């Protein structure tokens, strides 16, 4: 043992020789060839030395080297479900990467009225969504940007004509499928909604979420008010329609009528009314499929009853029997009435499907002349002709999309009966029975339709994966473009270029046609 100690020690050792012999075998150091100076911690025992244990010169030298090596990075926490935080910024949203000819066309076409043209070819194919794409929307302030909402819980912002990276932003703020997306009139912000019962306002330039609008229902559709860019309308699965103010994040108005799930909403040209489409498949009340609402009074304008002034009427204890000469026909209405007294004279107040009637009657139950009608909410005299008691759309089919004409007082509704119907947007909101667009198919898909910039073309998706372009005036099919193997969900015209449309499909593809 003395020879072994002398072999592993010399005069330069500062530690004295141990005074007792260890009762176990010393640890054999690793082979010199296996020693890696870059990572000395891999070959060094990490447990604390036993007091009194003999430490060889080689182990002391290895310990000195380890003390000079900086501490390695900490081992990450192995979470079975890690939260991957990725930057939503993938490319540029600037128009500097756009080809000069496209950029010149965008700048020249701004502010100029152009006749719509029919796209001829597939120009750009955009792929990022892994599931169905539900909605598309072009930016009006930055016409080279397109937003898409998908069932894969993402919102994509595309720099469509970029020569480098076409997908500029990829937002994953929703916790469920995204149903709709709209560009904010304020500029580079998008508003999206979905199955996570929320609407979210996102700053596209910074890539951050700025506001969340929580609801108690799945939010299926959103639309900014044309008169006030701080106001937007939302519709959801419980049939509630809410008007939100993004400045304070609160509900301004709520429109409730016991409707089914809201499928689409659209503001009229004057911005004083909006149109709602709801799912009536769960009930037998098909008259509520399409309703026109007054925004300020929060009441429906359609589905109301029309009565003329100057009725001859009498009242009894059970109801009112009103009769009037209506183009040679007698119009009879029965409803419950309530009796009040004003200045000692009986005042009859009856409400018939949201409109109230006020008039004085004599005390001896005689017939009354000069029957006067009043508006139940404004307390003003009603016009000589208020809406006739026919609903806007009486067929038992849902309408997944409604769109107003950009210039004329009318709107169209995409029906699950495989056609597009056209209606007047002014009272009495009549259906045009002599014109419809019926070459495409819907087949239960949320197929959307849109007008061209000049309003002369009407474009629609189809369940057969094609794009159908109709002449608005004649309702004739102008062109059919076969695009996808699965259903074509949404088709939108470019807000500046009259010959460009964007489309999306049920399999997640987004396409640009020129």
UniProtKB/TrEMBL annotation:
WD repeats lie at residues 126-160, 212-254, 451-480. Keywords: Repeat, WD repeat. Residues 1-52 are annotated as: Disordered. SMART domains: WD40. Transmembrane segments: none annotated. It holds the Pfam family WD40. This is Translation initiation factor beta propellor-like domain-containing protein. It comes from Salix brachista. The lineage of its organism: Eukaryota, Viridiplantae, Streptophyta, Embryophyta, Tracheophyta.
């Amino acid at each position: 043992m003395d020879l072994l100690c002398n072999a592993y020690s010399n005069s330069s050792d500062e530690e004295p020789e141990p005074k007792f012999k260890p009762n176990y075998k010393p640890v054999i150091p690793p082979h010199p060839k296996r020693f890696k100076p870059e990572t000395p911690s891999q070959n060094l025992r990490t447990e604390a030395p036993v007091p009194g244990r003999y430490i060889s010169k080689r182990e002391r030298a290895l310990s000195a080297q380890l003390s000079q090596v900086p501490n390695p990075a900490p081992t990450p926490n192995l979470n079975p479900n890690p939260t991957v935080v990725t930057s939503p910024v993938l490319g540029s949203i600037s128009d500097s990467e756009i080809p000069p000819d496209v950029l010149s066309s965008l700048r020249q076409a701004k502010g100029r009225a152009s006749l719509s043209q029919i796209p001829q070819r597939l120009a750009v194919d955009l792929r990022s969504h892994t599931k169905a794409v539900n909605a598309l929307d072009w930016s009006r302030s930055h016409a080279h940007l397109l937003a898409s909402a998908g069932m894969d819980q993402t919102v994509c912002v595309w720099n469509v004509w970029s020569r480098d990276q076409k997908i500029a932003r990829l937002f994953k703020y929703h916790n469920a499928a995204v149903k709709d997306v709209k560009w904010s009139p304020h500029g580079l912000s998008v508003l999206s909604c979905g199955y996570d019962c929320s609407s979210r306002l996102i700053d596209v330039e910074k890539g951050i979420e700025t506001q969340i609008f929580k609801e108690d229902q799945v939010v299926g559709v959103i639309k900014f008010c044309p008169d006030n860019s701080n106001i937007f309308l939302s519709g959801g699965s419980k049939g509630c329609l809410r008007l939100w103010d993004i400045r304070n994040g609160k509900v301004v108005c709520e429109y409730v009528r016991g409707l089914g799930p809201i499928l689409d909403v659209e503001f009229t040209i004057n911005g004083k009314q909006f149109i709602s489409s709801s799912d009536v498949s769960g009930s037998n009340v098909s008259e509520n499929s399409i309703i026109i609402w007054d925004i300020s009074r929060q009441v429906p304008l359609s589905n109301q009853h029309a009565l003329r002034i100057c009725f001859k009427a009498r009242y009894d204890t059970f109801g009112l029997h009103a009769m009037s000469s209506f183009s040679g026909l007698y119009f009879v209405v029965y409803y419950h009435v309530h009796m009040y007294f004003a200045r000692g004279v009986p005042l009859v107040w009856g409400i018939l499907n949201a409109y109230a009637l006020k008039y004085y009657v004599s005390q001896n139950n005689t017939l009354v002349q000069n029957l006067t009608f009043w508006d139940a909410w404004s307390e003003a005299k009603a016009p000589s002709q208020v809406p006739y008691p026919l609903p806007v759309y009486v067929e038992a089919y849902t309408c997944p999309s409604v769109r107003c004409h950009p210039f004329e007082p009318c709107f169209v509704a995409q029906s699950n009966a495989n056609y597009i119907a056209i209606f007047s947007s002014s009272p009495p909101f009549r259906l045009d029975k002599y014109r419809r667009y019926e070459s495409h198919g819907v087949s239960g898909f949320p197929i959307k339709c849109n007008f061209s910039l000049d309003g002369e073309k009407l474009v629609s998706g189809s369940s057969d994966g094609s794009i159908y372009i109709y002449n608005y005036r004649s309702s004739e099919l102008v062109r059919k473009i076969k695009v996808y193997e699965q259903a074509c969900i949404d088709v939108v015209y470019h807000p500046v270029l009259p010959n460009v449309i964007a489309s999306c499909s049920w399999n997640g593809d987004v396409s640009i046609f020129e």
